Amino acid sequence: MSVSTYSRQNISSGSAWEPVVGYSRAVRAGDFVFVSGTTSSSPDGAVGGADAAAQAREIFTRIGAALEQAGATFGDVVRTRVYLTSIADFDTVGAVHGEVFGEIRPSLVAVEVGALAAPDLLVEIELDAIIGAAPSAA
């Protein structure tokens, strides 16, 4: 019986919370990439203010940077999870998700949660990718 092992790469965003809480923005294990729940938080408050779609755009910018560091692209994403403090924001945040994923179409779940890490955060997104899973051009 052989045992498979995966090389591991922890990817940091530089957040002050990463060493305190003990997490990485993303982890690559072999060809698998797992991106932690990502928000638009900043020292000055949520980037995007009270606009859930603007927060989602900032989140996807941050996630894109983590994927790139891991050697992946949005095309490699196979699953996304969207957490909303108000499900009423689903249509606008979903439209941003569609701008990013268009024909890629990863699996998706969107749920309403009671709160996120700070009261001004409206959206948190996490995802999984498999490097090499990008759809081939037809």
From TrEMBL:
Name the record gives this protein: RidA family protein
InterPro entries named among the record's database cross-references: RutC-like_sf, YjgF/YER057c/UK114
Domain of life: Bacteria
One Pfam match: Ribonuc_L-PSP
Residues spanning the signal sequence: none
